[in-house]
Write a structure and sequence with these properties.
heterodimer, A: about 110 residues, mainly beta, 7-stranded mixed beta sheet, 4-stranded antiparallel beta sheet, B: 6-stranded mixed beta sheet, about 0% helix
Chain lengths: ~110, ~110
């Protein structure tokens, strides 16, 4: 364990389902991130939260909805996804300065 | 935005060999990090190295910020070194990291 815990590790969902990914960090960091990693592509930054405020949303479709209730928890709510959304979703946290970047183990999502 | 290029894209080694991975970036950066992603998807931070040289066991890294590149050296490679090595840079404008496409390393016994 790296100090950043993601659940679930694997998720299979239909296109009409609603599900949520959870990320929790115990490192005292105050910035949290969602990344998407598709096959044969570099990691894509989706959302950035700093001090619990969303500071970046990289043109992510509205079917992905993040939530950061406090500095230790980050969620990614999913609804009406498409098969091309199948990927590894990685959560990370860091100090606000970017120091100490730490990733969770990821949630491997399959949309059927 | 900033561009990050890694080379080579793929590398196959025999156990015990040495290797050098390269990362070029297109603009000034606050921070550069090297990560190793194991076959199960876990990304582990290897080095936080905006400039200079650092060593950790068989791994070392050098960043020449003025020339916008970084090198990761792996000596006496082991099968457990297999995986994807990513270089990621933090632009001077904020704390978000931009990743390169990675180098897929396979170390054969």
């Amino acid at each position: 364990e790296t100090g950043v815990t993601q659940t679930p590790r694997h998720l299979v969902m239909g296109m009409t389902n609603k599900k949520s990914l959870k990320c929790e960090q115990h490192l005292g960091h105050n910035a949290m991130y969602w990344y998407k990693q598709s096959a044969k592509k570099p990691l894509e930054l989706m959302f950035v939260y700093s001090l619990e405020e969303r500071v970046e949303n990289n043109s992510v479709p509205s079917r992905f909805s993040p939530e950061c209730p406090n500095s230790s928890h980050l969620f990614l709510h999913l609804h009406t996804l498409q098969p091309e959304d199948s990927a590894l979703y990685l959560c990370a946290s860091s100090q606000e300065t970017g120091y100490g970047y730490t990733f969770g183990s990821g949630t491997r999502l399959t949309v059927v | 935005g900033i561009q990050v290029e890694q080379s080579p894209p793929d590398l196959i080694l025999q156990e015990g060999a040495n290797s050098t991975l390269r990362c070029n970036f297109s603009d000034s950066v606050n921070n550069l990090q090297w990560f190793h992603q194991n076959p199960w998807g876990q990304l582990i931070n290897l080095f936080y190295i905006p400039s200079g040289t650092k060593q950790n066991g068989r791994l070392s890294a050098t960043t020449v910020a003025t020339e916008r590149y970084s090198l990761l050296y792996i000596s006496s490679s082991q099968t457990t070194d297999s995986g994807v090595y990513f270089c990621a840079v933090e632009e001077t404008s904020g704390s978000r990291l931009t990743f390169g496409e990675g180098t897929q390393l396979t170390v054969n016994p």
